[in-house]
């Protein structure tokens, strides 16, 4: 019988950690109370390497499928295959995916003219150079990926954020046919600004970054980067302008070379008219008539995920996945290299312990360095499509750390309610950057908190809504318990929609190390917090997934829904009682399972532990049943109330039609049975 | 550490069985070589009780939701809750389901007249009475469930089996508008005969049972029941005439009382015009003009499943489900009471051992007595909808024994290829009825065999195609490894489409005990075989699910597909190589897993065993991904070649259009990725 003791203190800052783990022949793990002090020498190493890694990753632009991207693939592979500090196994997974690029020979142009005859070319072919980074010939010119090529011209109209109501309102007073709309970022998805415009006869759309949204109003050259963290007047936010995530030619299938591809004309969710992003300097000089010359083209190119694994000792068939994308729009110092350097530092530390035979987690850990995220979460989505069954069956949780540090004020977490607690536990064991005696947790609760009926005041954990990063396919397609972690802003100090140079050529090592995280202390805090969560999920005997916290969230959503809807639903003879009963069943099943878990720690019955862990692991799958829940995945999409129900209610209220109230009733049944189904998985197994 | 020894010999006839099972504290099971002789006294008991149970179940008609149905619910509950011979727990699950009935006050009528003026009422209000059974006032009049009410009249035309091509052909020479079509059973689904007819303007459809299809041509009163097993001239086959299985008002949702129901006008897959089954005596007297008076009505009624469980000792969260429907059309002696009496006898024997503390299986066993199967597999489908997540995650296999005995010549099995082997093993341990020294297996191979590349000559196991019984939702909706077992005909002696009195008022205890299985010996053989399979699935340390047999089937399908399609696909530049590679990956993963399993028997690592068992249990789930495979579930539907591909190929070949060849390419990719995905679940877990 082998006994191993594992130090995981290295992830816990100066905090004292009380975890010791015995892994026996029968896969039994018991907790001991060995007190381990964090070795300070490690902290220094960690700091050194993080900065070094970040510098290495951001030396050149690494847009998906370019030479710079390949260079980062090689960096990852070299480190993960290192015999002393690497993982058990690392490899490349390649997909052939449909991307969109500007034409280097015919730069996109936006020109303006006084009513007739176009005269001045405003749009810059490259942004202003402040550091040598921006002069790199590999910097891609600003463009809207997946905008069609075209040469529209027309009168310029200001369409605010390009939402459906923005265009509707505008259309009341202006004939939009033949116009070019200028919109600011925010409010609607990037591609949606063009999709919403086309029905009104708009022929082209420009998108600019509004200084009020991103720069707290500052606009002048000497107030912005390199003098501050604010976006220079010539900076342009790039981005993917498609609505659906994953490769567009192979929906629900992995985009392998031989995979069938749908005809390009069958693609949905992309701009039907040309669209182009511009900087605010140019936006404010645009007047009257505008001509756009967009030369974008599409191409199927090979994009790689880099994968690495640490094999689990007792339960190799249970996976904790930790991932981040690797590709950037330009140098991507913050997006995504802040997250990539954190991941590489984590794998170096864990890999070293594995290679030295000091430690091996109970469950397997899979690291994913996703490709082509910027084009619409493509690498991670193709991965989930290729390994759909295996991942659905075996994945305990997915941890996403994309932009690790937006700013250095506080932790920010979005997650399923069931993993709120493990994030809290980890955050309590890590020092807040620059605050020796305050934990990440205590700092966090100060910036953002809420009142829980069970726990009192606790940090506010957000919803994993939409498809903002690579967690999307794990959450919406596979139904896997997920979280997204980062350090972020002090909202009392800035209203910036996101860090100002997001998706521009100014997102460089220089910028990151001067204005975002000097000293990389917040990077360290994220690495320690996320690493702590990762180890707890991979190595705890009983999974740190809490179904009672899930119940509390469902109760919150239920109360909101009852307050908002019950009165009017009664008028339509639709009862909310079945939903209330379902939530009550879930609560009572969760309470019971918690009781069972309390008794398990002292037992050493591996199959009983496994059974309970399977219940916890698969809890989120109960909210996925694509045939029963075709529109929305029950409540999952992350609204503060059940989204399928909320949508249906809003529709019915505005139309007033009986058939729409019928749909509300349908969504109530779907939701009720999803929650009942989840409760059935938590009650005694037979 | 508790050690239990279990006799399972009672299921194995006079054969000698070498199974002893140790269930240890760690859930470890090891085989010992205790030799147990089958106790002969048990055989007599078994026989006595089977006949008795059968008699009890068939005393009165028990159509779904009638008083007779409720009586069978009480019989099941009483036996399954018996403190000495019952199960651990038994209960009723009730659903409110949409059914269709004839109007007792306005019997359906078919009348004929000489061109003008209707004169003679031919259609019998009740069939001829040969035994008191047929005189029971609870015998439902013959009708087509889910036929609309209506009073069409028109010229009678003979439309063969009512297939699309039958009507198409007929339409070349006859103007079908305003006619009433007479069709014979077979060839097309019941409801399809009316669905296919309606587009041609046919106003009503009659269906009769052709003596050539069912009676080997015999027609006269003194050659048929009660003189033989053949259908009397006045016998009428009832049935459900809807196309989709499950409750029609609650697709993909359990039909609980409060569940939302779609508007009746949105129902699809039911006859758009009145349809009525008749006996052949009447069919042959129908000439010229016909008038139908159909008074069917629909009603939402409460239908019950009766559920019972034996809790597993080591892995209670793994389920083997054994089921059969309980409802009949009339007395249902063969359909379904032959299967129900087999199930009750099995539960009595197993329950007694459990209650006496002699035995408890490693995994949980769930018994399901489904309601309203005759109306379209409603009870079993609602059950899978209600417990979708739990059942998907935990069910090892589903065993269906509906009509246990069609005739007493040979075993018949339809199953996923992975459980062929456990059926063979069981069949080798049971004596064939009436043949002391021949096993069920040896008898079977004599009647129906095929040549396997791995095993040489073996019995032929059929495909679980379509939705012929309650396995449908388990196979097509949940993706659970399933089988359907029965004793059946000597095909050299009869061409009857099915046993002749199927779904008529002559399907009685008298009929069953005189003409189908005098002495109930075939019932016993089925009980022993199915029970043996059940115990092996529930109690073996390593699941008796064989992935190499799965590989062999895939190779067979692949070879067929390559022979049929490869040549022409090349012309369209579509390669079959990726499919070949996928099947090869599957084979190699299966071979490897078999090797791993060989090493496990001598080990006692519960989590390693569980890991492998999870791989085996979930193998069939890999072929289910409703978003990726929206039309057909990969190859599962059970054709001798991949059905999605075969359909697409047939379409493309007949249309010749490039877009249809595109769809062939799409289906190749779907199939390839389904098989690759399955292979990924069999390879080393990390």
Description:
Two copies of one chain form a homodimer. Chain A has 686 residues and is of the alpha/beta class. Chain A folds into three domains: 9-99 and 301-539, Zn peptidases (Aminopeptidase); 103-295, 3-Layer(bba) Sandwich (Glucose Oxidase, domain 1); 547-682, Transferrin receptor-like, dimerisation domain (Transcription Elongation Factor S-II, Chain A, Up-down Bundle), CATH 1.20.930.40. Helices cover 35% and strands 18% of the residues of chain A. Chain A contains 19 helices and 24 strands. In chain A, the strands form seven sheets. Chain A has a seven-stranded mixed β-sheet with strand order 5-15-17-16-18-24-19, sandwiched between helices. In chain A, strands 7-6-14-9-10-11-13 form a seven-stranded mixed β-sheet. Chain A has a two-stranded antiparallel ribbon with strand order 1-4. In chain A, helix 10 (420-428) crosses helix 14, helix 15 (547-571) runs antiparallel to helix 16 (577-600) and helix 18 packs antiparallel against helix 19 (658-682). The longest helix of chain A has 25 residues, at 547-571. Chains A, B: The chain crosses the membrane at residues 7-28. Chains A, B: GO terms for molecular function: aminopeptidase activity; carboxypeptidase activity; metal ion binding; metallopeptidase activity.
């Amino acid at each position: 019988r082998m006994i191993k003791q594992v130090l995981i203190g290295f992830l816990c800052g100066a905090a004292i950690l009380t975890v010791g783990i015995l892994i026996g022949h029968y896969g039994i793990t018991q907790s001991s109370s060995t007190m381990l002090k964090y070795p300070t020498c490690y902290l220094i190493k960690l700091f050194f390497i993080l900065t070094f890694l970040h510098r290495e990753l951001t030396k050149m632009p690494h847009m998906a499928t370019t030479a710079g991207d390949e260079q980062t693939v090689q960096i990852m592979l070299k480190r993960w295959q290192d015999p002393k500090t690497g993982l058990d196994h690392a490899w490349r997974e390649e997909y052939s995916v449909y991307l969109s690029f500007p034409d280097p020979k015919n730069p996109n142009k936006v020109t303006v003219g006084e009513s007739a005859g176009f005269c001045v070319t405003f749009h810059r072919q490259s942004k202003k150079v402040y550091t040598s980074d921006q002069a790199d010939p590999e910097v891609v010119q600003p463009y809207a990926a997946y905008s069609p090529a075209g040469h529209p011209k027309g009168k310029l109209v200001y369409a605010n954020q390009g939402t459906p109501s923005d265009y509707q309102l505008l259309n009341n007073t202006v004939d939009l046919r033949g116009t070019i709309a200028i919109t600011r970022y925010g409010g609607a998805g990037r591609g949606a600004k063009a999709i919403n415009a086309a029905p009104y006869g708009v022929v082209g759309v420009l998108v600019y970054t509004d200084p009020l949204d991103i720069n707290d109003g500052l606009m002048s050259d000497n107030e912005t980067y390199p003098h501050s963290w604010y976006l220079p007047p010539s900076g342009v936010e790039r981005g993917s302008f498609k609505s659906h995530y994953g490769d567009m030619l192979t929906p629900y299938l992995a985009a392998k070379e031989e995979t069938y591809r749908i005809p390009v004309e069958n693609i949905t969710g992309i701009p039907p008219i040309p669209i182009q992003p511009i900087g605010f300097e140019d936006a404010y000089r645009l007047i009257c008539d505008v001509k756009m010359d967009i030369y974008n083209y599409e191409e199927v190119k090979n994009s790689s995920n880099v994968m690495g694994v640490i094999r689990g000792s007792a339960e190799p068939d249970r996976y904790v996945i930790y991932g981040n994308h690797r590709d950037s729009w330009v140098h991507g110092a913050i997006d995504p290299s802040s997250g990539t350097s954190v991941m590489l530092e984590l794998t170096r530390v864990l890999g070293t312990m594995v290679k030295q035979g000091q430690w091996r987690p109970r469950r397997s850990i899979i690291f994913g360095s996703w490709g082509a995220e910027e084009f619409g979460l493509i690498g991670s989505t193709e991965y989930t499509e290729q390994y759909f069954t295996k991942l659905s069956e075996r994945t305990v949780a997915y941890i996403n750390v994309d932009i690790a540090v937006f700013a250095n004020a506080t932790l920010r977490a979005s997650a399923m309610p069931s993993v709120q607690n493990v994030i809290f536990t980890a955050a309590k064991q890590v020092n807040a950057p620059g605050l020796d005696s305050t934990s990440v947790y205590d700092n966090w609760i100060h910036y953002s908190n809420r009142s829980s009926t069970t726990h009192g005041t606790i940090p506010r954990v957000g919803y994993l809504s939409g498809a903002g990063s690579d967690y999307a396919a794990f959450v919406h397609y596979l139904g896997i318990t997920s979280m997204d972690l980062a350090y972020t802003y002090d909202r009392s100090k800035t209203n910036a929609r996101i860090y100002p140079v997001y998706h521009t050529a100014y997102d460089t090592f220089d910028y990151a190390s001067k204005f975002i995280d000097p000293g990389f202390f917040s990077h360290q805090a994220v690495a320690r917090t996320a690493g702590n969560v990762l180890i707890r999920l991979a190595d705890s005997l009983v999974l740190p997934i809490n179904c009672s916290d899930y119940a509390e969230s469902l109760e919150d959503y239920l109360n909101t829904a009852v307050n908002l809807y019950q009165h009017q639903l009664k008028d339509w003879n639709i009862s909310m009682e079945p939903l209330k009963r379902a939530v009550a069943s879930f609560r009572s099943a969760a309470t019971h399972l918690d009781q069972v878990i309390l008794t398990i720690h002292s037992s050493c019955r591996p199959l009983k532990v496994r059974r309970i862990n399977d219940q916890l692991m698969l809890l989120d799958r109960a909210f996925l049943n694509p045939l029963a829940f075709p529109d929305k995945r029950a409540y999952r999409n992350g609204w503060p109330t059940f989204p399928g129900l909320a949508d249906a209610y809003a529709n019915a209220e505005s139309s007033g039609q009986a058939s729409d109230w019928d749909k509300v009733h349908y969504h109530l049944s779907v939701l009720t049975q999803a929650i009942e189904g989840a409760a059935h998985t938590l009650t005694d197994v037979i």
